[in-house]
Amino acid sequence: MRRRLGWGFWLALGWITLVLAAAAAADLLPLPRYDETLAGPPQSGPGPGHPFGTDGLGRDVLSRVVYGARVSLGVGVGAVLLGVLIGAPLGVLAGYRRRAVDAVIMGVNDIALAFPALVFALAVVAFAGASLLNVLIVLGVLGVPAWVRLVRGATMVFSEREFVSAARLLGARDRTVLWREIVPNVSLPVASYAFIGMAVAIVAEGSLAFLGLSVQAPTPTWGGMINEGRPLMETAPHVVLLPSFVMFLTVLAFNLLGDRLRALTDVRQSGLEPVRRRRAERLPARPHHVEEDVLLQAADLRTHFTTARGTVRAVDGVSFTLERGRTLAVVGESGSGKSMLIRSVLGLAPESGTLRGGHVYLDGQDLTELDDQQMRRLLGTRLAAVFQDPMTALNPVRTIGAQVAEPLMVHLGMKRRAARARAAELLASVGIPEPARTLRRYPHQLSGGMRQRVTIAMALSCGPDVLFADEPTTALDVTVQDQVLRLIRRQREERHMAVVLVSHDLSVVAEWADEVIVMYAGKVVERGPAATLFERTRMPYTEALLAAVPKLTDPAHHPLRLLPGRPPDLANPPSGCAFHPRCPYARERCSAEEPPLFQAEAPDHLYACWYPVGTGAGAVETSGVSGMSGAAEVLRATEAAGAEETTDTIEGADSRGR
Amino acid sequence: MAGSGNAHLRPADEVVLRVEDLVVEFPAGGGRSVHAVSGVSFDVARGETLGIVGESGCGKSTTARALMQMPPPRAGSVRLDGVELTALRGEALRRTRRRLQMVFQDPISSLNPRRRVRDIVAEGPRVWGTGADLVDEMLTAVGLDPATAAARRPHEFSGGQCQRVSIARALVLEPEVVICDEPVSALDVSVQAQILALLEELKERYRLTLVFIAHDLAVVKNVSDRILVMYLGKVCELASGEALVGRPAHPYTRALLASIPRGGLGLPPADRLISGEPPSPVTPPSGCRFRTRCPAATPLCAAEEPVMRRIGADHWVACHHPHGRGSNGGEVR
Questions:
Q1: What residue spans carry the Low complexity bias annotation (chain A) (predicted)?
Q2: For the whole model, what pTM was predicted?
C-alpha cells in the first residue's frame, strides 16, 4: 500500500495531521491568545516570543494561524460532510432508480447549479449573520449539486455491472443491493473527491473571509488574516505570508490526497508495469543467416520488459520467414506473446523499460536499424496493420472518406479529389455497398463488420507488401468473420502480398493460413505448414489446444480433453520447457533443460519438445492418457507403431533427448 | 425463417421451464422501438440442457434477461414449474425468481471487486437464511479450495477462476434452472474446455437444468441436448445437435454452419454462404425476417411469416422452404 500511494501522499497526510493536531490542541500549546492585543510590539517581524511576528494590533501571527485552522479545517471538513450527507443519497437514488426519480432529482439539481453561488452566500450572511455554522452550511449546500452528479454517475456505472443483476437474482432486496454491492464501490471515488472538495471549501471560505463575509473578527480565519494584512503589505509582509503559505500547503495537501486515492481506483496495478527508463535498450542477437528471396524475416526477435516483479520475456527469440502470397498465422492463448510479436516486428512495442533484440528484414533491409522517421514512412506503405477493434483504429469525429483518403494524400501525394475517388474504389474493393455514400458517413454509423472492412481498406490503400492482422475477426459474428477472412485472402491474391494473421482461434488458422507459428510463454514451440502442423502435431501444447476445442463433428456431451492450469507468469516462467507443468507427457528432463527447436520429418516443420507426440518418444505416456480425443489417439497410435524416426534437430543432433 | 408458432412446445407437465410468445421491445427514440425479441417460444425439460445459438443482435441475451424479468417482457408467458413469472410483482417475484439463476459472460464484471469470494458465494444463503453449509461444498465443487480461495477478492483470480466463483454463486441456492449467457466466450480455449467440463460434471452431480446461450455452435452442440437457433428476435430451428448439424433445414442454420471455418473438421464444403449483415431490429423485414439475406426466398416469404412445424423426430423449423423438403412450394434442393 505504501509504495503504491507514493511519498507525496504520506507527506500530504503528515501535513494535514500536523495542522489538525495543532488546531485541536491550540489551547494547550504555549501560545499567546489569538485575540490578545499588544502581546508584542505591533507589526514586529519574527523574533523571540513571536516566531512569525505580530500583526497590526500586536497579536501573535502564529497563534492566529493555529486558531484560524479551526475555522478553515472546520469549514472544509464540515461543508464536505454536509454536501456528501445530502448529495450522496440523492445521487445513489437517482442513479439506481433511474426514470422518474432520476428526472426529478436531476432537474432540481440543474436548477440549483444555475443559482448564483455568491448571491446565495451574501443573502444568507446578510440575513442570518456570519457565524462559523452559517458559513459551513452555505458552502455545504452549494456543494450538493456536484455531489449528486458525481455519485449518480458512479452509481449508474456500477448498477449496470452483472454482479448487481446477480445479487438481485439471488433475491437481495434493493436496500441490500445498494448497501452491499453499490455503496462500497462508489465510496472510494467519493472519498477521493471528498479531499479535493475539502481543498475547494477551504479556498472558498478564504475567499468569503477576504470579502468579509466569513466568521467575523476577532475570531481569526486564514482568509480574514490575509484581508487584514493587505494594507500592511509594504511595511510588514510577514503578516500575510504565513497564513497564505499555510493555506497553500493545506489546499495542496488535500488535493494530493484526493488525487492519489483516485489513482488507486483507476488502475489495478499488478507489478508488471514497465519500470520507467528513457530508451529501449538492445539485447545482443545470436548470429543468424539473412535469407535471400524472402519478403519478411524475423531473426531471434526479443522484446523484454523490466518490471518491478522482474524481467518479463514477452517475446523471446522468435524467428520466421514469410514469402509473398502466403499467410503466416501466429496462435496461442492470451499472454503467449503473439500480439507483442507483431508489435515488435512493426517496431510498435512500448519504448520505456523495454529491452529489444534480434532483427527484422524486409526484402533484406534491416528494419531494426531504421530511425523513427524512416520506420514511420514504411508503416502504412509497405507494412500495414489491422487490429481487433476497428473502433480504436478509426477517428470517431472524422468521416470515413477523410480517413481513407488521408494516407493516400500523405504517402502517395495524391490531390484531394483524386484521393476521394481512389478511396471510393478501395471501399468498393472491400465489399462496402454504396461506397460514395459511405465516404460521407462517420464510423459509428457503420456496423462492426463494415468498420473492419474500412480499416482493411485503409490498410490496403498504399499497396502494402505485408498485411498484419491482429485478431481481425474476434469481435465479429461468424458469418461476418467468414466474409472478412475471405476478403483478406482475395486481396492477398490480387495484390500478391503476404499476410500475418494473429488469432487464438485454431479453426480459423487451420482454414486460412499456409504456415503456422504456435507460441507459448513468448517462444515458438511449434512451427510449420498448416496442414502438417495440424495433422502431424508434435508439440504436446499444440495437441492439447486442438483437443480442447469442441468440434462440430463430435457427438453432444463428448468429453473434451482438458489442458489443466493456465499460461505461465512471464515474469517468472517455469524452468526447462515452460509448458512442462501442464504437460501430460512431462518427464524429469523437461523441467531441467529447455528443448531447442527440432526438425520433424516434414520439411519446415519444427517443434520444441524432448518427447514429441506422434513419435516413439512419447509413446509410453501416451497410452495412459485418458479422455484423449479419438482422432488424435488413432493418429498417434499408428505413427507410434509404424513411423520411422526421421526427426533431426537443427541445433545439434547430439542434444536430442531420446 | 425466423418465425413464430408453438407447435414445438411439449406438454406442460413434461417441462420445468416453458416460454411462450415472448416479446421484448426497447424504445429507440422518435417513437420507434427495437424489436429485440418477437414471439419466441421454447421449453426445457428437467435435467435437460437447451442451447440457444445465434449471432449478435438475435435476441438471445435479451431472452435470458426477460426470463429473469430483468426487465419483464412486454408480452408473453414465462412459466417455471407452472408458476407464471410475468404475473408476479415485488415480494412474490423475489421469492420465486431465486429458483432461476444466471452465469454471465464477463467474469470480471460479474463479481463485486470489493467483496471476498466467500461473501460473494454466501450472499444467497445470507439473504434467505438457508444453505450456508453449502458454501464450502460449492467452492470445492467448482474446483476452488475454500481454505485459500474464500478470503481473497476477485481481482486475485484469473478469468476462468472468476467464472467458477460465478457458477458456485448460482448453484448455492439449488436453483431449478441455471441460465448461462455466453459463459465461456471471454475465455481462452484451454479454460473454455475446463469450464464446459465443469458444467457437465455439476449437471450430473446436482441434476441441473441448463439454458446455455452462446454464439459458437460447436460449443453449444458440445453441452446441449437440444439447440434453438435464433435470428433477429425470432426462432428459426429447433433440433438435437446431431440433427441440426447433420441435417440443417433452415437456410440460416445452413449459412451459420457454412461460415464456421472447416479447417481439419472434415465437414462437407458449404453449400451457399449468405452475404451482408442482419437488418436493423428497429425496422425488421415483413414476413420471414431472414428473407432479405436468404438464398431461397420467394414472394411468399415477404407476405407470410412461417411458423414452426415438425420435419423430423423432435426437429422443428420455421421456414416456408426448408432444405430437403418440397412442401409449401419450395423446391427440393
A1: 638-652
A2: 0.83
Q: Is residue B152 part of a domain?
A: no
Residues in chain A, overall count: 658
Q: Quote the pLDDT of residue A543.
A: 92
Across the range A285-294, mean pLDDT stands at 79
CATH value at residue A190: 1.10.3720.10
Distance between first and last Cα of chain B: 17
Across the interface, do B261 and A508 touch by the CB < 8 Å criterion? yes
From chain A, the residues in CB contact with B218 under 8 A are: 549-552
Q: Are B76 and B253 in contact (CB under 8 A)?
A: no
> Residue A547 is part of which domain span?
528-655
CA separation (Å) from B331 to B13, B35, B297? 38, 31, 11
Residues A514, A532, single domain; the answer is no
Task: Report the pLDDT value the prediction gives residue A616, as an integer from 0 to 100.
Answer: 60
Phi first, then psi: give them for residue A319, nearest 5 degrees: -130, 140
Q: By the CB < 8 Å criterion, does A514 face chain B? A: no
Residues 6+ apart with CB under 8 A from A413: none
Complex ipTM: 0.86
| Count of Cβ atoms closer than 10 Å to residue A209 Cβ | 28
Q: A537 and A509, same structural domain?
A: no
Nearest to A332 by CA among A579, A572, A527, A503: A503
**Which chain A residues are Cβ-neighbours of B162 within 8 angstroms?**
none
User: What count of CB pairs under 8 Å joins A to B?
Assistant: 192
Helix (H) or strand (E) holding A343: helix A338-345
Residue A500 has φ and ψ, to the nearest 5°, of: -110, 115
A270 touches B at CB < 8 Å:
no
3-class DSSP state of A319 = strand
Helix (H, G, I), strand (E, B) or coil at B23: strand
Among B62, B164, B188, B194, the strongest candidate for a mutation testing the A interface, having the largest count of A CBs within 10 A, is: B188
Q: By the 8 A CB rule, do B71 and B65 touch?
A: yes
Lowest mean pLDDT among B30-34, B176-180, B324-328: B324-328
Q: How many domains does chain A have?
A: 3
Report how many domains make up chain B: 1
Q: Are residues A341 and A215 in the same domain?
A: no
Last residue of a domain, one of A518, A544, A571: A518
Instruction: Measure the CA–CA gap between A478 and A538, rounded to whole angstroms.
Output: 30
Whether residue B102 and residue A169 make contact (CB cut-off 8 A), yes or no, is: yes
| Contact call for residues B191 and B219 (beta carbons, < 8 A) | no
Distance CA A524, CA A545 (A): 15
- CA separation for the pair A121, A138 (Å, rounded): 6
Joined grid coordinates for residue B283: 425496422
User: What are the residues whose beta carbons fall under 8 Å from the beta carbon of B140, sequence distance 6 or more?
Assistant: B146
Residue A580: all three cell numbers together? 512442462
Q: Which of residues 376-395 of A touch B (CB under 8 A)?
A: none
B14 occurs within a structural domain: yes
Judged by CB atoms closer than 8 Å, whether chains meet at A166 and B221 is answered as: no
Q: How confident is the model over A353-365, as pLDDT tens digits? A: 788 888 999 998 9
